[in-house]
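As described in the Methods, two query proteins were run sequentially through the folding procedure within a single session, without resetting any intermediate state between them. The first query and its resulting structure tokens are shown here.
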Amino acid sequence: MRIRPFVFVSQHQALNSDKIEALQIWRQNKSHSKPNNRSKESMNVDQLKAIQAPIKDQYRIDPTSAMVTIRSEGRVEVSDQHCVIQSHAGTIRAGLHPAAGGTEDDACSAEILLESLVACAGVTFGAVATNMGIDIRSCTIEAEGNMDFRGTLGVERTAPVGLTAIRLNFRIESSAESATLDKLVSLTERYCVIYQTLIKGVSVMTARN
């Protein structure tokens, strides 16, 4: 078990069409595969590199094509203190955490943030492990965050609003050497978008339309 704690400080050239088509076909086939056949549909290092190589080449040739705007939108239900988001996983209804007067029926935004970190770290971990050729029997990633609810409830002005520390724990079962797994986790940290966004901080601008 390895624990990775951290505290935060708070147009384009077209990609090779046949490569894009190959990626789409692979994803379609994978989505239609049965759960018990999932291992047979796993992407190996050669397949992953074949898909990513032309994309990387495109970004080297035209760096502006790598700049993508990612969006999320939610509908606020003011009287119920809910925000409804349509995600790839379905509808998510966010509400107050029980420690702030909410119930377990709604998703907590802070938990969604941790889930986003876990999801991104997991996807990155899989890609890095595949590229390194490491045999992973299983991997579970857990994120925990500390929060003083006096801050968001306005009980104590000096109390911080938001998560003040996050711990990311990788539970890995593998025949690989410990040093290799340490390198794998380190590279996962290096290339995980959410992890890097949190530890580096990012400018957030608010507008009212």
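Immediately afterward, the second query was submitted; its sequence and tokens are:
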Amino acid sequence: GHVPPSIAALLPCPVTFTILRHPIDRAISSYWCAYFDSTNGAHEAARRFSLVEFIVEGHGHSSNGQARYLSEVFFTGETMGDARMLQVASDALSRVTYACMMEQADDLISGICTAAGVDRTADLPSLNKGRRLRDATSDELAIVAEHNRVDAALYVRVRGRFQRALLAP
């Protein structure tokens, strides 16, 4: 599950990781997950609203969901502007041991296994679930992107960090 980043400060030698999914893919997936999962807290909203309405209204984790977790806004209910949320989430990311994008999750798992001295079992399933854009129009995608600007900025930072780590000796 998702754990507030501040929990790591309570542990003597934490090894932490996070996987960021492409923001548009994640937001749309959040909608469809809520739509089909009757136990999801946003299920009723997903059934009542279109994709765009769901995201514009901020239901579920559809609007900057990753930044809201990393900045702990999701857990505290605090409100903060995009610039502040990006700064707080970026600070949290700087304290994460491993960070990657969903498309690179298999590489992350291999890196963690190597660091821990554990052989990665060859039959572990792939975590790359692929894209779930469904039939979103270009106008809908633009609105989804607008409501996930902070997540997009975080994604770019993590992609750069992960690429630098792969190039490191």
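The first strand starts at residue 17 and ends at 20. We note this only descriptively and draw no conclusion about the first query from it.
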